[in-house]
Amino acid sequence: MADTPSSLPRRLVPEGSTARGRDAQHGAALVAVKKLFAAESTSFFVVAGTAVFLVVFGLVMVLSSSSVEQYVATHDFFGAFLRQGIFAAVGVPLMLVLSRVPTWAWQKYAWHLLAASMVLQLLVFTPLGVTVNGNRNWIHIGSFSAQPSEFLKLTLCIWIGMILVKKENRLDDWRQVAVPLVPVVLIAVALVMRGGDLGTTLILLLLVGVGVFLSGVRLKFFVVPLLLMAVAIPLLTINGGSSRSTRISAWLAGCDTAEAYQSTCWQTTHGLWAMASGGVFGVGLGNSKAKWSWLPEADNDFIYAIIGEELGLIGACVVLGLFIVLAVSFIKIVRRSDTAFVRIVTGAIMTWIIGQALVNIAVVLGLLPVLGVPLPLISAGGSSLIFVLAALGVVLSFLHHAPDAEASEIATRERVGSLR
User: Percent of the chain having pLDDT more than 70?
Assistant: First the structure.
């Protein structure tokens, strides 16, 4: 009869090996469970907590700033608030789900995500596309509308990280840096610019520039692109559309004519008046006068003006301070990470979110012309809210999986030690 494991002499089986094998399997399962429910780092909770607080605060301010015009249009004070609440109910869980995605998955599917976002951006030039405030940057299907350029921002952040990591050892050669980075970025920027969205175009260029800088590319490689941008952007701005060029010309002139006040400077002027009337402590939540059809886009691009009016200088500074908290957290992640992909993507996402917030605030304060850029996490708008939360989910996934290598090494040592 052939020998079976049970018929083998007991002395041929290392004493205690079965128990150690069971212990090793139990240890591996325990490590997997601990990784699933492990306590997150402080930075994880700071980023997630700040984002959720800004979303909740944004819901309150959307309700306050939109209630009057919503009632005039639909006899329902809560229309915009309920829509924004639905977007938040989708975006916050999405952020938490994406925080569990491993880092390697973002790199593996970067091309797929970028291709999908570009296809969606192309749809704005089909019959599905619609024009909003002079920008053809929306698609409308039935009762559903979306802004594909928000998805494009996120996928471009991930894609440039993947490409630059693949070329990590060849960044001294400008040709290796340029291909395929320059053609792809130019296509993405051209698709957005063709729709007339100057604000999103500037944000895309900023996040790409910071991502390339963090990859370790030599500074001399930035000279030619910066010179080209210095020439191209003013030309495209002036000649890209009558509405945009008129707004910028009026802003450069100081909005000091009665004609400008009645047309192109109406929004900027009333935004400044709203901020000024708030004083230090504000007029009180819900007591804004500018939202009574005096300030266009009060719940969107100019919601910061309503914050300043109702909550005063203190409320405006608190919002600014929360974005600074996010910026500091992003910088810590960039500085502490040993992975180039994490540094590049986090830096690009930081530039997108914090840069867009600063641009929005600068527009409200009259430091920049009106660019149609919403305040991240606060302004009304589903596309912006959902994809900004998705971007934060990507950053949280880096934080969640940061100790993987260390945990794997410790588990390996324990298994090796138990078998000795």
Answer: 84
Q: What angle do CA 199, 60, 270 make, to 5 degrees?
A: 50
How do the domains of the chain map onto residue ranges? 38-401
Residue 319: which of 368, 259, 379 has the closest Cα? 379
- Phi/psi for 141 (5° steps) reads -130, 105
For 355-400, give the secondary structure using H, E and C: HHHHHHHHHHCCCCCCCCCCCCCCCCCHHHHHHHHHHHHHHHHHHH
The one-letter amino acid code at 289 reads K
List the strands of the sheet with 129-132, edge to edge: 129-132, 135-141, 144-146
Residues facing 146 on adjacent strands: 139
Burial 160-174 (b: 16+ CB within 10 A, else e): bbbbbbebeeebeee
Query: How far, in Å, CA of 151 to CA of 236, rounded?
Result: 23
CA dihedral in degrees (109, 43, 385, 348; nearest 10)? -50
Q: Are 397 and 103 in contact (CB under 8 A)?
A: yes
Q: Which residues are within 8 A (CB) of 90 and not within 5 positions of it... i.e. 6 or more apart?
A: 386
**Per-residue pLDDT tens over the stretch 155-197:** 999 999 999 999 888 888 888 888 899 999 999 999 998 888 8
Nearest to 323 by CA among 369, 280, 355, 285: 355
* Percent of the chain topping pLDDT 90: 60
Q: How many CB atoms lie within 10 A of CB 194?
A: 16
Strand pairing class (135-141; 144-146) = antiparallel
| Spatial distance between the Cα atoms of 409 and 407, rounded to a whole number of angstroms | 5
If one counts every other C-beta atom within 10 angstroms of the C-beta of residue 38, the result is 12
Cα dist. 25→18, 28, 30, 408 in Å?
A: 11, 5, 9, 14
Q: Residue 56 has what pLDDT?
A: 97
